[in-house]
Amino acid sequence: MFDVLAYLFEQYQDPEACRDRDTMMRQLEAAYFEDEEINDALDWLDGICDLDSSIYAAADDAYGMRVYADVELKRLPVEVRGLIQFLEDHGALSPAQREMVLDRLLELPDDDINVGSTKLVALMVLWAQKAELPILLGEELLDAVHGEPTMQ
């Protein structure tokens, strides 16, 4: 699924271009992705594109520290929580976007929740919102798509 998401991120500037599921299926099949992987990725992407940002807006107005629920602590490794905190502290994610990332991560199986998948989820949330990507942090996030960052 993550390979399909990375491919979509690289190929399409506008997430709206991914809304025609039949066309996307044909294009992804032509790129030699398997049907199950394509369906999982497109279902997951629909979840991001269908997020109602207004339900997360209050997070941007809140002050204080994010306290994780027991289920979040159990499912999200400390490295993942640390990365999310780092991205928020450095302006790559707003508090509302942080909550969107957390919600999308919790939709994944436990085995798929790691630092690499978190970077890709953060990128996909920002991409779906057509948000600006901070240059230096964006390079770190793009590591999830392209491999090692190119900046020195």
In short:
By secondary structure, this protein is mainly alpha-helical. 62% of the residues lie in helices and 0% in strands. The protein has helices at 2-11, 21-30, 35-49, 57-61, 70-75, 78-89, 95-105, 115-128, 135-146.
β-strand number: 0
Give the helix level as a range of percent.
Answer: 55-70%
Mean pLDDT: 83
What's the tally of helices?
9
Terminal CA distance reads 30 Å
Strand proportion: under 5%
Structural class estimated from helices and strands: mainly alpha
Low-confidence stretches: 148-152
Task: Round the Cα radius of gyration to an integer and report it.
Answer: 15 Å
Largest sheet: none
Family: Belongs to the Smg family.
Protein name: Protein Smg homolog
InterPro entries: Smg
Pfam families: DUF494
What does it look like?
The protein is an all-alpha fold. The protein has two domains: 1-50; 54-152, no CATH class. It is built from nine helices and no strands. The chain has helices at 2-11, 21-30, 35-49, 57-61, 70-75, 78-89, 95-105, 115-128, 135-146. Helix 1 (2-11) packs parallel to helix 8 (115-128), helix 6 packs parallel to helix 8 (115-128) and helix 7 crosses helix 8 (115-128). The longest helix is centred in the first third of the chain and has 15 residues, at 35-49.
